[in-house]
Amino acid sequence: MAAVCTVWIGSSATGSGGMALAGSGTSGASTGSGASSSAFSIAGNTGGLFPGLTVNMTLTVNNREHFAIDVTSITSMVSNGSSLCPAANVSVGAFSGNMVVAAGGTATTAVPVTMAYSAPDPCQGLTFPFAYRGQAVKA
Amino acid sequence: MRGARRASVAIVPVAIAVTLMPGTPADAAWSAHGAGSAAGVAMTMPTGSTPSGQASGSSVTVSWASAALPNGVAVAGYVIRRYDAATGAQESVGGNCSGVVTTTTCTELSVPSGTWVYTDIPVQSNWTGGASQKSASIAVA
Q1: Does B74 touch chain A if contact means CB atoms closer than 8 Å?
Q2: CA angle, residues A34, A37, A42, in degrees to nearest 5
């Protein structure tokens, strides 16, 4: 049986007691019927960076939806460690593929993190903030 | 105003039905962004271990223990420095001990007469670690 929600076009569409509904289109960071504004989170830290070394960093995706999702891409943006050690000294590989995450569950993947061999001495001991962004569809 | 309300009521039959059954076009259109933040932390270089030295004529052989990064990987090399034991003045290091030494021992040739102390500094690419404590004094006749 289908559950049908109806959006009325007219002045009475947002009256008292009205419901919030994400219809077809865009709602915050999500699109499609029933999508929430933050469907999943991405986390992952790494240490041990030094010039010329590549380490594998585990990314954990937490699916906040009540249905399985298929994460198709994750990209990362690196911020400066300091003014003397810019972000260009560290690179984080992207994930591209199909990572199915169960409803309310988590899944992991690994991406490479590399510090450039030419990283200057002031990079020692610094923390480089990573910001992740991912794309998913319903599995 | 009343006229406007009547107009909106008139178009009420124009509705969008959103079906929430799996496998429908609405499901196929579902997509979302995820986000998060974290960090990567760089290691720090170790400090060199205190070297020892042995003079033989005008040559001084300096030795020290290997230094490792926090992940256990030995550093790529060391910079050796020599100081006047009395004044603390740094002198130029020659022979096999100049530049980056990739072993844990080196022999400096043609060392001037005097009393000297040595240090070793771990290096890795452009990174430099902390200088070791100075060696015991080494007399060169």
Answers
A1: no
A2: 120
Residues of chain A with pLDDT under 50: 1-36
Strand partners for A8:
B15
CA A57-A59-A61 angle, to 5 degrees, is 175
Written as six digits, the tokens of B12 are 């009420």
- Band the pLDDT of B26: cuts 50, 70, 90: low
Cα–Cα distances (Å) from A138 to A33, A70, A101, A109, B32, in that order, read 11, 6, 10, 18, 9
Is A134–B8 a contact, with Cβ atoms under 8 angstroms apart? no
Is the Cα dihedral A126, A127, A129, A132 positive or negative? positive
Task: Give A34: exposed, middle or buried? Use CB within 10 Å, 0-12, 13-18, 19+.
Answer: buried
* Residue B126 touches partner A, C-beta closer than 8 Å: yes
Q: ipTM surpassing 0.85, yes or no?
A: no
Q: Is the Cβ–Cβ distance between B45 and B127 less than 8 Å?
A: yes
